[in-house]
Structure formats: C-alpha cells, structure tokens
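Narrative summary of target 7.
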Amino acid sequence: MSRAYGFSCFAGLSRFGMKFLYTALLFFTAFAVHAGDWREDLTLKPGVFPPLRPLTVDYEFGWSGVTAANAKAKFSVTGTQNELQLTIGTVGMARSMWKMDSRVTSVCDSLTLAPVSLVQVEEYSDETRSTKVTFTEKGAERFRVSTPPDKTPPKIKKFKLKDVHDMQSALLFIRSQPLAVGEKVKLCVYPGSSGYFAVIEVLKREKITVAGKQWDAIKCDLKLREVDKKFTLKTHSKFKNAVAWFSDDQDRLLLKIEAEVFIGKVWTELKKFEFEDEKK
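Modeled conformation, tokenized:
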C-alpha cells in the first residue's frame, strides 16, 4: 500500500495522516466467513442520495492526544466527473520524527461513482514517490516511480477486479446509500498499492460535536481485510477496528474517525468546511 494514499485506513500513524485516512476512511469491513466468493457479495449499485456539493474541507489527524498531520481537500464537479484535490503533511512533533508531504488528485464518474484515475506525489526526507493509478473495466493499473530510483525498474502493477474503488469513489458510493441502521455496504478498495475488501455497517444515529458545532450523525463500524494475489481475504496485521461518523443531513460529510491500530489509537476529525455555493 502507498505510504500516504493508503489513508491505509491508514495502516496507522507510523505513516501518519494519509495512511490512516485512506485505510481508516475507506476500508470498512465486518467479516464473517462466507461459503461463496466474497466478490459475489459486493454492493454494486450506487444509491439515490443527493450528490455532494462542491466544497473545501480541512481535517486534522492525530495519534492518541497528539496532532500529527493536517489535510486540506477540495471537491469539485466538472461535467460528468468529480475531482478531489488533497494536500496533507505532518506537523509539530510528528514532523520532526517523520517528514511527509503529499498531493493527491482523484477523478471519478459523477453518475456511476466509478473511479477514473488517481495521481499522487509523496515527498519524504529521503525520497519522493510518484504514483498513477488508472481504472478500467478490467480493474486498476498502477505505475510508481521513486526518486532516488529503486534498484528494481518500475513496472505496471495490475489489480484485475472490475468493481473496485479508490478513496474518493468509495466515500461517495457509501454516502449515496440509504444508510439505515443495520445496513452494510460492501466494497473492494484499491488506494494505490493493494486491494482491500471493505464493509461499512451502520450502527446508530447520535449527536456529536465536531468543528465547533453539534451534529446529528450516522455512526458506522469500520473494519477491513487485505486481498492477496489469488483474491483470498487475509487479516490485516496492523489494523484492528475503527468507527466513523457521517453528518446525518443533506451533505453527509465525513466528520470523524477513530481507529485502533498496532501502535494504538489514531483519529481524524473535520476542523473546517466551506461549500462553494455558500461563499460570500
């Protein structure tokens, strides 16, 4: 998984911010063993909930009680495509231990909510990684280049599953569903390096305080499992469990995530938001 875009839901804040956001924001799975192939159990049809309005949002990421990274995301709609532009970087004490800055552009179809492309540049103190993922009817194709270059020349890595999402398309797909209490949405997510089987289960409605206001919120249980080369599900060695909250209103913003990973508790929380149609 990508050290940044893999938020791998964020395999923990040992790779702060992005790894947490893209694994915790996106890989929601409650796993009973199925007699059949898990690929036959995926949720395929987008819901009819109104689409997200263009906006800019700021998030804060942390490990236990320490703020570790900040992120700014801009979501826009052009024609029949949604575009998400995201920048994220470690801050404070976390940055002194692990410097990371990342820029991500994700494009998906605004009608089908299927992913189109993902481009990410990750800058660390010792290297820069440039990753491009193209999504087709045959699945995902990833090409990554590192500077300084790796010993092994870069080559295209394929994930051959048609019904696969990236981070943006997965979140939009989830919020489009009815999200009734007890409902489960099952997805396969490819955030940049590996595939994950993801299920989000709606637990209940409740009120929480985020970004200086009280929200009616949808509380969801989040878990995930890795998909190996033979499309067999494997237990994630670093991710234990997570809970996420979406606003229970016309926008269904991602408000907050709390996750237990191998290094302890990590979290992300909405700090500020502004809709384009409400700008003065």
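The first helix runs from residue 18 to 24.
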